[in-house]
Structures are given as C-alpha cells and as structure tokens.
C-alpha cells in the first residue's frame, strides 16, 4: 500500500521482464470455504487453524465502466516515454524512460506531474547502470528497490527516499551468492529482490539471509522512527517459504507455504502485541495484500481469480477473474486493482470494498491496456494503439466511478 502526503497514493509496477516472470508462473486452482472466527487482538487458544477456500465466494457486483473520454489524458511522447508509478500528495510520480536504453550506460530518472494543472517538474535520478522500482509510499517516504536489468535480481538494494528532503536510507541489501544457492526459488514479482510494503512509518519485506553456511527466509519490519529493523518470522528453505509481507492498520500479513508449495497459510500478525492468527488457504495464492485499515486480506489465485476476505465479517468476495494478475491495494480507503493481462485479452479495473463493486476499463477496438492501478485519488490506466500511447486519470475523490 502507498500513502502520499497529504492525500492517499498508490503505485504501479511496469516492465516486460517482470510481467513475463509473473505470467510464467500462472495456473489454475479451485478450493472450498469453511467458516472463520473473528480475528482478535491475538491468537485464540483452543481454536484449530481455520480454512479459507474459494468455492463459496460471492461475486462482486459490476459497477460503471471507466471511460477515457471522462478522464484526464497524459500523452506519452516517443522520445522520452514516461510511466506513472505512484502518487505523492497532489502529484503523480513519473518514471522517465532511460536514455540510452536501459542498461549499463543508463541512469534511472523520475519526475513529478500534477494531474489538475499539467505542471511537470524534475524529481530525482538514481545510480547509473541500475533500475529503481518504486514499491510503495508512506507520507513523504518512498520504498525503492534498486536492481540490475536481468532477473532473478539476486543483487539488490532496498532504499527509502524522502521525496521532500531528498534523504536516502539503505535498509537492506541482497547477497549475490543467493542466486546460485541450491534449492532457493525466486518469487513474484521481482525474483530474489523484495517488493516492500509501507504503512504508518514501517516497512515490511521478505528476503533470504545467510548466516555462515545456513540460509534462512526472513520476514522483516523496519521502523522509520528509531531506525531499527526486526526479524518477525524466519524459516529454513527445507522447512517452508515466506512471501508477500504486507502492512495495514496495526497489522502485517504474509504467506507461509510448505517446502514443496502444496500447502499455504496466511499469517496475520498484530504489530502491537506480536500475537498471530493463521488461516489455511487452498489453491496457490500470491501477492497477498492488506488494505490500509488492516481489515481485508486480498490476493490472486494463479490468475484465475482475485479475492478479498473480510477478517471481521468472515466473508469472501471474488472481485475479478482472469482479467489480469496480482493484486495491489490503495493506501487510504480500500480499493484493489491488478495488472492487466492484455496479451490474453484482459483489461484493467479496480474493486471498491465499500460499495462491493468492480469497475472495468471500457474496451475499445484496436486499443490495449497493459497498465492499470489506483494512484492516490486517481485511477490510472494506459491505452496503446501500437502507434500512440497515453495514460488516463479518472478522479475518485470527486465521485468518479466509485
């Protein structure tokens, strides 16, 4: 989830290599739902681990379409194309395509663009010969993963950048030898590099960490206020796998899987008390997220469907099918989006938890949508005709479509 100051924000992740990595791991699954107890401030002694399945999910209603004619247009020029990647206050963070083409001689570059006024101003530049991927925002801070240009990104750096002051903190780094360690599997969407989550002054991520000859898979939390980091959970690869840590409210959640990946649990961890509740989930979930208030778990089950589970009401909603892959949560409020699977006829859209409605981008002949996400008070999507590319921004704060 992403928070910009002073308004809510969001993020989008782009790149053909990342999309290919995601689509290459997709498949089909189905399962069953059994009743779940209300989540308390701590694990409930005497309760067996409840199960979340998929067969009893209720389908979300279909809301009004997102129409380009009703949105603000950002035309992408052929010389220095841009991609909207996050929202910060009243501005959209733009990733400017590298010149020359991404590689050893290029430098990551970012800019800020105001949707209302059209004003654009310079942002920051990264380290030459790398790419920087904005994974989340919280207040003035952005979490950024710095990698090379070829998966599986065993050599990575996790940075925090203050967009107001320019301060940069390095809070974690990868071990290049991890990529050649037997039995370790790169995950989605960034291989061995983490896809960090931010909320309320904290950062959460998962990584492989080496201690002597032993490698552990860890889930960590970094606290901005006191510059400290804590290992919240760890497991040896022969005993299981941990993935997709996400923050929301005063909670964090992640996926805990068996060594062979046949069984999966969602772990909901109370940050104030350290208590945990586990939920068995059938299928093969990935990209688990918490909504900003910590009340909803959402995930993708192998591109076949996207689900949202209300932790208090014990209700499961299927809000999208095979339109795309992955799930991204907006920072404030509770809206969920996905990456469109344009190559397979998919499209963009978002699910509004409050109204229980899913809004899809209006299909147009000869137009493909490869990118779509909630960015702050805007829903943004890309439309490409093959000769021209543009991004459209539909206001959500003024009622929009949700």
What kind of sheet is the major sheet? 5 strands, mixed
Shape: globular
Count of folded domains: 1
Distance between the termini: 19 Å
Q: What spatial order of strands do you see in the largest sheet?
A: 3-22-21-20-19
Could you tell me the strand content as a percent range? over 45%
What is the fold-level CATH name, i.e. the topology?
Answer: Neuraminidase
Quickly give the CATH architecture. Answer: 6 Propeller
* CA-atom Rg in angstroms: 20 Å
Number of helices: 1
Mean pLDDT across all residues, rounded? 86
Proportion of helical residues: under 10%
Instruction: Identify the CATH homologous superfamily.
Output: TolB, C-terminal domain
Structural class: mainly beta
Uncertain parts: 1-47
Number of extended strands: 33
CATH class: Mainly Beta
Q: What is the oligomeric state here?
A: single chain
Question: What would your notes on this structure say?
Answer:
- The strands form eight sheets. A five-stranded mixed sheet has the order 3-22-21-20-19, with no helix packed on it. Strands 4-26-25-24-23 form a five-stranded mixed sheet, with no helix packed on it. The protein has a five-stranded mixed sheet with strand order 5-30-29-28-27, with no helix packed on it.
- It has a single domain (2-395), classed as TolB, C-terminal domain (Neuraminidase), CATH 2.120.10.30.
- By secondary structure, the chain is mostly beta strands.
- The protein has one helix at 16-24, and strands at residues 2-3, 8-9, 51-52, 58-59, 61-62, 72-76, 82-88, 91-96, 109-114, 120-125, 131-138, 141-147, 157-162, 168-173, 197-199, 202-211, 214-223, 228-235, 241-248, 251-257, 264-270, 276-281, 285-290, 296-301, 305-310, 315-320, 324-329, 335-340, 349-352, 357-360, 372-375, 378-384, 389-395.
- Strand 19 and strand 20 (251-257) form a beta hairpin.
- The longest helix is centred in the N-terminal third of the chain and has 9 residues, at 16-24.
- The chain is built from one helix and 33 strands.
